[in-house]
Amino acid sequence: MGSIHRILPVALLGFGLSACDKSEYLSPEVVLETENGQVSCQLYTTDRLYWDEATAYPETMTKSEADAYCKAAGRERKDAAATQV
């Protein structure tokens, strides 16, 4: 009985996250020029920075490095939007 109490919350969380449709939060794709080459980023709305990710990047770069560039671009976009208000 104890293990079901540990598994159920995790299962519910997983189901809830899988039901989330990211497409309604999409922004136009952004291409960044880096010292290692171009990184294509899929950015989402400014309140969804944790979803920002690289969709294409140079072979000399890891996915996590490319994602870091995209997340930085998302933060810059959010900061720019905040200063326009």
TrEMBL record:
PROSITE patterns: PROKAR_LIPOPROTEIN
Protein's UniProt name: Lipoprotein
Organism lineage: Bacteria, Pseudomonadati, Pseudomonadota, Alphaproteobacteria, Rhodobacterales
